[in-house]
Amino acid sequence: MNLIELKWPDVAALSRDVPVVIPVAALEQHGRHMPVFTDSMLLGEIVRRAGERLGERVLWTPLQWLGNSEHHLDFPGSMSAAPRTYLNLLREMAENFIAYGFKRIVFLNGHGGNHVPGSQAVYELRQKYRKRNDLLLLFATYWDLGKPWDTLPELKQRRMGHACEFETSMMLRIAPHLVGDHRATPTVEFGSPFEPAVRGWTMPDRSEPGHIGEANAATAEKGEHLFATFAAGAVAFLERVVAWDGKSWSG
To answer: What backbone torsions phi and psi does residue 236 show, to the nearest 5 degrees?
Structure first.
């Protein structure tokens, strides 16, 4: 179900055990070869495919395109909510549905910079509602829900980058007219910035052109495989949310 298609009495009549899924992405630079709306376009396609399979079992809100993209602001065209602003935005969107009585709220993420504030948002909400044992508050990133390299050995990367083989392939699948000359892009290694420590960084620290990974290896065929794998992973994950018994620790 899509929230934007419902009237308020329709929402009021829903079971409060129906999961509410809030897709969150970004508008930010994606190298010299990709459009700034890449993250939101890719997540939108994941949501479309997953929504077709889940039908009436899940309530989808509109995709939130503004993300936490502070590390991209050196590149014109990027838009960002600062980390605490973004964290509060996520909390308040979830609070709307908690106030309506919904008990299963999931943020489905499509941008790496949203992960830390998103995880903190659901953590803080759980502390606020610590006496509510019937609440399930989750933040999940779509590319963590599938392993496409297990079934497509032609993939050179084994993890998501930025405007990389994965994202470029997926854009070639749904909007090839928006992709520039990806085959001419240099490979930008992921690197290991003082791992296992977490290092503060901006994109120019890591990449002058603004991408990370092997965009030059992208194809539309790989993009279809990636979409199919990630959408299936999202469906399987949300089916676990639907099946949750309302009290157990693990779904």
So the answer is: -60, -40
- In this structure, are residues 5 and 183 in contact, taking their beta carbons and an 8 Å threshold? no
User: What tokens appear for 159 in the block?
Assistant: 């993890």
CATH number of the domain where residue 25 is located: 3.40.50.10310
Contact 118, 99 (CB under 8 A): no
CA neighbours closer than 13 Å in the CB half-sphere of residue 45: 20
What tens digit of pLDDT does each residue of 150-165 get?
999 999 999 999 999 9
Residue numbers of the domain that contains 169: 3-243
Taking a C-beta distance cutoff of 8 angstroms, is the pair 108, 140 a contact? yes
pLDDT tens for each residue of 24-56: 999 999 999 999 999 999 999 999 999 999 999
Burial of 178 by CB count in 10 Å (0-12 exposed, 13-18 middle, 19+ buried)?
middle
